[in-house]
């Protein structure tokens, strides 16, 4: 594929090969047949408002970082593969409870099952944010290798889902609708890719300039889109000039886990990438409770989502809400359950009598 010239004549052939590769990769990830043996438990129960996984090669400082951030002891030694199972820890930041997972080091070929890599990446798929921990002294080749391993397992880092509408139907053939001019996809290429999945009847709407890979991701339907921060550890061993260059790399935070340097910058970036919103509760006739906020995701922060986070039964008795904060014009203001809340709003729920 790398040696094939990319032009109009070969685009259909390349699309077919990409679709076949994606199918074969999926069969590797989800092997056919019955369940395997019991094995040692690897995943950890999800707790808190968000979950962050530390992914990286062995001996880059993941366990030291977890120990110094969360105060949890994760075995640290001068040899590789010190951590053999998932070590959990919890930090409280801005009132939110965030679970940290120190995952065992992965090696090249992890997505194919080498060195328990499949289990490690499967746990990484369940995280709200991934910290890729890199050794600043080792080449940036490692960053590319880890990205390749995670992408092979259906994880897309710092990407948003493709803006493609896809709906299978019983009959009527392939119906392609493009809302913007396309540089790569046309009806023939779409038919070729869907033909590989034995789909001959579907409605497809392309709302942006999409690639063949993005269409395959939508058809496969098992991709997860996770934000990611690259942590360059061991900056105590490089010069100031090198540090200035590192700071220009996007999605990147240089730290020293051993000396606890630049942790505040890391936590601030972590909060920004998690996209969490804190909402304070106010019982009638009392002051707001600023000690324990209700934490919701930025894309699910309506009054209804807030009520469901407190208790499922509240929304049935909901009459209206009183809101103080930046999301309303007046302080307080009566709102319905569709109202979108902002960070650090104060809410009082009024129930039906």
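Q: What amino acid sequence fits the structure above?
A:
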């Amino acid at each position: 594929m790398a040696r094939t010239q990319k032009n109009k004549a070969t685009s259909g052939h390349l699309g077919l090969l990409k679709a076949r590769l994606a199918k074969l990769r999926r069969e590797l990830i989800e092997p056919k047949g019955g369940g395997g043996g019991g094995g040692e438990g690897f995943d950890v129960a999800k707790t808190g408002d968000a979950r962050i996984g530390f992914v990286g090669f062995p001996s880059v400082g993941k366990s030291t970082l977890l120990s110094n951030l969360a105060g949890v002891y994760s075995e640290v030694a001068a040899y590789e593969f010190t951590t053999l199972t998932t070590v959990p820890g919890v930090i409280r930041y801005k009132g939110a409870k965030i679970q940290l997972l120190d995952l065992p080091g992965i090696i090249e070929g992890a997505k194919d099952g080498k060195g328990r890599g499949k289990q490690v990446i499967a746990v990484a798929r369940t995280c709200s944010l991934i910290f890729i921990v890199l050794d600043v002294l080792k080449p940036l080749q490692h960053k590319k290798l880890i990205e390749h391993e995670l992408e092979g397992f259906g994880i897309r880092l710092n990407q948003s889902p493709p803006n493609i509408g896809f709906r299978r139907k019983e009959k009527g053939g392939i119906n392609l609708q493009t809302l913007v001019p396309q540089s790569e996809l046309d009806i023939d290429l779409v038919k070729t890719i869907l033909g590989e999945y034995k789909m001959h009847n579907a409605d497809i709407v392309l709302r942006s300039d999409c690639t063949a890979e993005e269409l395959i991701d939508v058809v496969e339907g098992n991709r997860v889109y996770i934000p990611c921060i690259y942590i360059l550890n061991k900056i105590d061993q490089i010069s100031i000039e090198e540090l200035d260059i590192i700071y220009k790399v996007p999605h990147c935070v240089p730290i020293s886990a051993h000396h606890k340097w630049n942790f505040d910058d890391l936590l601030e970036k972590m909060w920004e990438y998690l996209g969490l919103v804190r909402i304070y509760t106010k019982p009638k006739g009392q002051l707001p409770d600023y000690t324990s906020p209700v934490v919701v995701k930025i894309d699910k922060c309506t009054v209804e989502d807030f009520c469901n986070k407190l208790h499922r039964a509240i929304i049935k008795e909901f009459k209206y809400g009183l809101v103080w904060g930046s999301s309303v014009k007046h302080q307080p203001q009566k709102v319905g359950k569709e109202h979108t809340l902002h960070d650090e709003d104060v809410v009082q729920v009024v129930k039906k009598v």
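Q: And what stands out in the fold?
A: Confidence is low (pLDDT under 50) at residues 32-39.
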